[in-house]
Amino acid sequence: MQRYKCKVAYDGSQFSGYQIQPNQRTVQGELEKALEKLHKGKETKVFASGRTDAGVHARGQMIHFDSPFSIPEEKWPVALNALLPDEISILEVEKAESDFHARFDVTGKEYRYFVYTSKVRDPFRRHYAYHYPYALNLVTIKKASQYLLGTHDFTSFCSAKTEVEDRVRELREIEVLEEGDMLVFRFVGNGFLYNMVRILVGTLLQIGAGEILSDEIPAILAKKDRIYAGKTAPPQGLYLWKVDYENNS
Amino acid sequence: MQRYKCKVAYDGSQFSGYQIQPNQRTVQGELEKALEKLHKGKETKVFASGRTDAGVHARGQMIHFDSPFSIPEEKWPVALNALLPDEISILEVEKAESDFHARFDVTGKEYRYFVYTSKVRDPFRRHYAYHYPYALNLVTIKKASQYLLGTHDFTSFCSAKTEVEDRVRELREIEVLEEGDMLVFRFVGNGFLYNMVRILVGTLLQIGAGEILSDEIPAILAKKDRIYAGKTAPPQGLYLWKVDYENNS
């Protein structure tokens, strides 16, 4: 058996999220179906760096799987893409050590969140960015970002349904880039909690709108309670952009 | 009654084209439904600069309609967009003379066709550009464009189903722009026949691939028969970009 490590992009808008679920169309479900076809009916389990929610996209999701086939690395994307729906694209495949694990070996992740601020909505971005046609103060957003940087308990910034006990995460980079009428929020960290990026963006937008003050961030973090942070921004603006492992990046 | 002239964008991927048809989801059907709601059940007919096929998009389709309401121009987009599906967006509305006609007054149109050439397909562009992952010679494409420029009988470059008798059209501009892995074909003319842009692009791609020679264009035009031109490029790459009238542009 050979372990393969694989970079995958997908348009999440028509999926019930990444993770396989009975009677739902999921990215994992489609990946495993394609691998099963390729392996002539033999079930092949796929392990990802983490799940993404319904409507959330990926430019650089990472997965691994094992195969008895020794297809050359560059042939794999063509072979798999022919068996996958066109909302999913295998971008790169490389051979990995047999103990490589797409989830347990993650050293960092980058998410991006796209917001567009034009007065009138754009039909071509309805599934791919969040339309926020109101005035935003970027100065206060950037000031708030500075408070969020670093290692904190992010309990206030994750879904109340979060099951994991340890909510301490390190946010290594937060950037807010303006590209025409598009605002791009870039988050790099060692790991992200359930809904964390969407709650961070929702809160930063409320700060930009003057509904929450930048200086309230330390107190919101200290409360360790979801109800103190802002709204959860909708899924369509969010992209899992890049996953880092020891040997790449 | 006041006549309104309106600029509309739509994502054509989920519509059976622009023109209203029984039991089909069409752009015109949705526009008329929204106007009927706004006018409390009174039917309102919409006239467009021309139709677009299933899967074809518009950034600058132009329509007109009459309304007894004297809503200020800047309030119209918000009022109508609230009643329209989010694949359609009213971008601008302005008052027009009572004899303005969105179709009969057209003096020129611009279409753009997007082709992307990356080796691996991109799930985010599947409905919005044509994936052509093969080598293309831009020099021969540009040479062929020069033969197409100007006033010609474009019978060879329109669907065999074209009903209009006069197939002489003036192509005023053809440009091929490279933007990263995207090729943008820009066509400006006084009018376009059924499938004309898609057949022009399909033929230019075959010229870029070496399957047809640039120098064959004059002979293809002279044949006045669809079978001599190249393939019809698929709809998802095509955008009605801009419509010109006497007083704008």
TrEMBL record, chains A, B:
GO terms for molecular function: RNA binding; tRNA pseudouridine(38-40) synthase activity. It is an enzyme of class 5 (isomerase). It catalyses: uridine(38/39/40) in tRNA = pseudouridine(38/39/40) in tRNA. The keyword Ribonucleoprotein does not apply. Keywords: Isomerase, tRNA processing. GO terms for biological process: tRNA pseudouridine synthesis. Residues 9-105, 144-246 form the Pseudouridine synthase I TruA alpha/beta domain. Gene3D superfamilies: Pseudouridine synthase I, catalytic domain, C-terminal subdomain (3.30.70.660), Pseudouridine synthase I, catalytic domain, N-terminal subdomain (3.30.70.580). SUPFAM superfamilies: Pseudouridine synthase. Its EC number is 5.4.99.12. It holds the Pfam family PseudoU_synth_1. Substrate binds at residue 111. The active site is at 53 (nucleophile). Belongs to the tRNA pseudouridine synthase TruA family. Homodimer. Formation of pseudouridine at positions 38, 39 and 40 in the anticodon stem and loop of transfer RNAs. This is tRNA pseudouridine synthase A. It comes from Bacillus yapensis. The gene is truA.
